[in-house]
Amino acid sequence: MKRLFLTVVAVLSMTMTFAEDEKLNTVNSVNAYNMDVNYGKLADCLGLSMDQLESVQDIHTSFCAEMMNAASANADERKAMVEKAVEKDLKHMRYVLTTDQYRKYLMLINATFNNRGLNK
């Protein structure tokens, strides 16, 4: 009887551990798609004017919403949604930013995606 009880306890604890890891992986996955930034630091880094900053905020807010939609989508749809969101973001940023600012922005976005493991 004691062995049966210990076996049941061991199986239940292993099941709980695996379930906890799945939840943790899902939370980390969703956090990877959160693209919120500090706009003051972004403006300093890129040297944005006030008009550019307002436009960048609007564009980036839309980009953040699209990335969060991608995070909650099915895995097979996610990659296409991310690519579409990035393409749209870069197209709009290209219109607002100067050539040097756009280059810096590309480096920042690329580094962000690499750090979060989204370039796979």
What's the layout of helices and strands?
Elements lengths: L1 H31 L6 H8 L3 H22 L3 H22 L2 H18 L4
Helix pairs in contact: 3-4
Give the strand tally: 0
Cα-atom radius of gyration: 21 Å
| Average predicted confidence as pLDDT | 79
The secondary structure category is: mainly alpha
Oligomeric grouping of the chains: single chain
- Let me know the largest β-sheet: none
Series of H and E elements: HHHHH
Helix proportion range? over 70%
Q: Which percent band covers the strand fraction?
A: under 5%
List the uncertain runs.
Answer: 19-28
Q: What separation lies between the terminal Cα atoms? A: 50 Å
The number of helical elements comes to: 5
- Shape category: elongated
Summarize the structure.
With 120 residues, the protein is mainly alpha-helical.
Q: Would you give an account of this structure?
A:
- By secondary structure, the chain is mainly alpha-helical.
- The protein is built from five helices and no strands.
- The chain has helices at 2-32, 39-46, 50-71, 75-96, 99-116.
Notable features of this structure?
120 residues, mainly alpha, 84% helix, elongated
